[in-house]
Design a protein that fits this description.
This protein has 401 residues and is α/β, with parallel strands linked by helices. It is built from 14 helices and 19 strands. Strand 1, helix 1 and strand 2 form a beta-alpha-beta unit. The longest helix is centred in the C-terminal third of the chain and has 16 residues.
């Protein structure tokens, strides 16, 4: 089988050097990558580097190798075009259809999915001109990843950093796998909770659970690749990298998770509760470490109920037509318990999976049945957590349209 053909467009920002890492990941995972830098990008990383890493000649202008009609051919043959970094100038040119070099010509001739990973100073990103250009590109079906927040070129920090190349690579992989031309979640805001809450007993101890957060992160990545604006409320997931273009809100306890989810859900089209939320928390928090007392049995730990967030947001929807999805971790009578839980919680979809010592928690794979409020059952065979995530978004997208 032919390798998928990827065009890596690089525009003139300091983050151009990070595109070398993206290029490596793409080539090493079996993609045939043609790099098309702009003339300004070559001020940051030279043609020799792009050529050596991609194994292809590198041109910036339509006047290079004219006999090969590169300005049309490269775009026509691509399976994916990714522009990283995409400067404010590049987004403006792409939005307005300008074609004054090889990359902008390629963007006009490409009929495949296009991903932009913008990087610029916060002021430039927030300028209404840039925001309108981004909205135009998204409306036309391009995936524009939200920039990350962090250190910028100088000493300043803010929104505008190029997302981690590993995460841009993940978006490309997802977009290529689905072959999405029209990202079906474009213009939608989705909220996902992930991880497991920790309910503190004292400054050093907590009641927690084994949820790794990987399923929630897979949901966030796949939603972003399908064009959604994503808020990820992440409970104790410090080991996982922030997915590119996703707004991550870190939380610790069930009460904090509830607050963050309710806030983000106010304007959300869909909410997916993948987090394992503790049903109970210690009734009292000891501000100092609880000490054992010699020759005495330990004091019992009194617990109080935590709010049931899924039931609450399902009963009192922030917007009409908002789609709400729950997850159910069950060890016995998986489907029967799942049906009862779906009715009790009042959500639209419930992803039911069997958990146990060696099942699901922390693994890269999952197997589940999605139960719908209309009575249907959608089995999802054993496979990557991203495949389950895409099935969830297929069902959500169908309910939103
Ligand atoms: N959930 C929630 N708030 C809680 C507990 C759970 O929002 N206090 C959500 C979870 O995020 C998940 C779903 O409810 O989407 C089901 O979680 P699960 O732990 O399986 O269900 P429980 O409500 O704990 O029911 P049971 O005790 O019967 O297992």
């Amino acid at each position: 089988m032919d390798k998928p053909k990827v065009v890596l467009g690089v525009s003139g920002g300091i983050a151009a050097y990070k595109a070398c890492e993206l290029l490596r990941r793409l080539t090493e995972s079996g993609h045939d990558v043609r790099v098309v830098p702009t003339a300004s990008a070559l001020h940051f990383v030279g043609a020799a580097t792009w050529s050596a890493l991609s194994g292809h000649p590198v041109a910036t202008e339509v006047w290079d190798d004219v006999h090969e009609v590169l300005h049309v051919r490269i775009g026509q043959h691509a399976d994916l075009v990714v522009v990283a970094p995409a400067t404010a100038d590049m987004l403006a040119k792409a939005a307005h259809g300008l074609a004054d070099d090889l990359l902008t010509n390629t963007l006009l001739t490409a009929r495949c999915p296009v991903v932009f990973a913008p990087a610029m100073h916060t002021e430039m990103w927030e300028h209404p001109a840039t925001q309108e250009n981004v909205a135009t590109l998204r409306r036309r079906g391009a995936v524009v990843i939200e920039p990350a927040v962090g250190r910028l070129t100088g000493v300043d920090t803010g929104k505008g950093r190029l997302p981690d190349p590993v995460e841009i690579f993940e978006v490309c992989r997802r977009v290529l796998a689905r072959g999405v031309r029209e990202p079906d979640l474009a213009g939608r805001h989705v909220v996902i909770s992930a991880g497991g809450t920790r309910e503190p007993l004292d400054p050093v101890r907590f009641l927690g659970n084994r949820s790794s957060g990987k399923q929630g992160y897979a949901l966030a990545r796949t939603a972003a690749a399908r064009g959604a604006r994503v808020t990820l409320v992440a409970a104790n997931t410090s080991g996982l990298a922030d997915p590119a273009g996703v707004d991550v809100v870190p939380v610790g306890t069930a009460v904090q998770l509830r607050e963050a989810v309710l806030k983000a859900a106010a304007d959300a089209d869909a909410v997916v509760m993948a987090a394992a939320v503790a049903d109970f928390r210690p009734a009292a928090y000891a501000p100092g470490k609880i000490k054992k007392k010699d020759d005495q049995d330990p004091d019992p730990i009194a617990l109080v109920r935590n709010p049931d967030i899924l039931a609450e947001i399902s009963a009192d929807r922030a917007r009409p037509g908002q789609v709400i999805v729950g997850f159910a971790a069950e060890t016995d009578d998986v489907l029967a318990n799942g049906r009862k839980k779906l009715a009790r919680k009042g959500c639209d979809l419930l992803v039911v999976n069997e958990v146990g010592e060696r099942k699901t928690f922390g693994s890269e794979e999952n197997e589940a049945v999605v139960l719908a409020a209309d009575g249907s059952e959608i089995p999802v065979p054993h496979g990557p957590k991203e495949a389950l995530a895409d099935t969830v978004w297929d069902l959500v997208a169908a309910r939103l349209s």
